[in-house]
Amino acid sequence: MARRPAGVTLVAVIVWIQGLFTLLGGIFSLVAAPAGGELAGPLAASAIISIILGVITIAVGVGLLRGSGVARVLTTIVLLLSIANAIYVLLAQPATILGPVVSALLAVVGLIMLYTSRANAYFRS
Q1: What angle do the packed helices 98-114 and 6-32 form, to 10 degrees?
Q2: CB under 8 Å to 38, separation ≥6 — which residues?
Q3: Pick from 7, 36, 66, 86: most CB atoms within 10 A?
Q4: 61-104 pLDDT tens trace
Q5: Under DSSP, is residue 80 helix (H, G, I), strand (E, B) or coil?
Q6: Exposure of 96 by Cβ count < 10 A (0-12 exposed, 13-18 middle, 19+ buried)?
Q7: Are 64 and 78 in contact (CB under 8 A)?
Q8: CA 47 to CA 40: how far, in whole Å?
Q9: What keywords tag this UniProt record (predicted)?
């Protein structure tokens, strides 16, 4: 197997940071969600989705360091879902701009780095 490029290592770190932000954002949203009212259900659903995506993102990031093509595909899917979730959180909770924006930006950077020519060669070997 070819030597792992620094970009793939960077993606793994970005994936872990992304997962951590998503996980923490979900936990904070769940704790801060109002107990009743019209928005309680959607906010709780968004928080639970964020927690699940955060855990999956962290777990799949480990496979990237091992050169797993499956991990690369799963990471791509999770990062795309994380971007979608960040957009949803921005729409559902407009006051929480920083977390979702940082989360989405990290996901985009991760996707770009995951498909550089050196990363492509690494995952093909």
Answers
A1: 160
A2: none
A3: 86
A4: 888 988 989 899 998 998 899 899 999 999 998 888 999 999 99
A5: helix
A6: middle
A7: no
A8: 11
A9: Membrane, Transmembrane, Transmembrane helix
Identity of residue 107: A
User: Which H or E run contains 25?
Assistant: helix 6-32
CA dist 83 and 104 (Å) reads 5
Cα–Cα distance for residue pair 2/95, rounded to 1 Å: 45
**Tokens (6 digits) for 49:** 């989705």
What would the two tokens of residue 112 be?
Answer: 């770009």
**C-beta separation of 107 from 18 below 8 A:** yes
Put simply, whether the predicted model's pTM sits higher than 0.70 gets the answer no
Question: Tokens 């920083």 — which residue?
Answer: 98
**What is the per-residue pLDDT for 85?**
93
